[in-house]
Amino acid sequence: MASETILEGKKAIVAEIVDKMKNAQAFVLVDYKGINVEQDTAFRKNAREADVDYKIYKNTFLRLAAKECGYDELVDALKGSTAVGFCNSDVVAPAKVVSEFAKSNDLECLTIKGGVIEGSIASLEELQKIATLPSREALLAKMLGSLQAPISNFACVINAIKEKKEEDEQASA
C-alpha cells in the first residue's frame, strides 16, 4: 500500500517534468556542485527575475522525463548534481542566467551540462553563444535606435540650416 503511494508520487513528479520540458521554450541542465546556500539563494532570485523556473530533481526522474520527451541525448549529461532551469517566455534566459551568475560571482562550479531550445537539443557551444546574446528587449532597443538614427540626423541637419540662415540674417541686418 505504502509503496503504491510512493510510486504514484514519483510518477507525478516525472509527469510534472515531462510537462515542463514539453511546454518550455528552452531549458538547461545545470551542474551546481560546490555552490553554497547563500549563492544558491541569490541564483534562484536572479532566475525568478528572469522568469526562469529553476528546480533540482533526481537524475532518475530527469532521465525518465527526457526519454519520454524524446531527448535521449541528454541522458548522458544526467550524472552528478543536476538542476534544471525552464523558461516559457525567452529562449535565451535559462542559459544567460546561469552564465551571467557564474561569471559575476566567479563560480566555476556552476556550469551548463546541456539543454533544449525550442524543442531541439542544443550543443554546449550553442548554449554558450546564446548565453552571450543580449536580451530580446536590448535587441529591440538597438533596432529602434538604428531606425531612429537617420531621422534624428536629418532633424539635426535641418536645424543647423535654420540656425545658419538666422545667423546670416542677423549678420546682414
Fold and architecture overview:
The protein is α+β, with helices and mostly antiparallel strands and 173 residues long. Helix content is 60%, strand content 14%. The chain has 6 helices and 5 strands. The protein has helices spanning 2-23, 37-49, 59-69, 93-104, 124-132, 136-172; strands at 26-31, 53-56, 83-87, 111-117, 120-122. A 5-stranded antiparallel sheet has the order 2-3-1-4-5. The chain is elongated, with a radius of gyration of 25 Å.
Features:
single chain; 173 residues; alpha+beta; 6 helices; 5 strands; 60% helix
Into which percentage range does the β-strand content fall? 5-15%
Helix content: 55-70%
With strands numbered from the N-terminus, the spatial order across the biggest sheet is 2-3-1-4-5
Q: Could you name the ranges where pLDDT drops below 50 across 5 or more consecutive residues?
A: none
Structural class: alpha+beta
Q: What overall form do the CA principal axes indicate?
A: elongated
Largest sheet: 5 strands, antiparallel
Q: Count of helices?
A: 6
| Rounded average pLDDT | 87
Question: Kindly, what is the distance between the CA atoms of the first and last residues, rounded to a whole number of angstroms?
Answer: 104 Å
In total, the number of strands is: 5
Topology:
Blueprint: H1 2-23, E1 26-31, H2 37-49, E2 53-56, H3 59-69, E3 83-87, H4 93-104, E4 111-117, E5 120-122, H5 124-132, H6 136-172
Antiparallel strand pairs: 1-3, 1-4, 2-3, 4-5
Helix pairs in contact: 1-3, 4-5
Brief write-up:
The chain is an alpha+beta fold and 173 residues long. The protein is 60% helix and 14% strand. The protein has 6 helices and 5 strands.
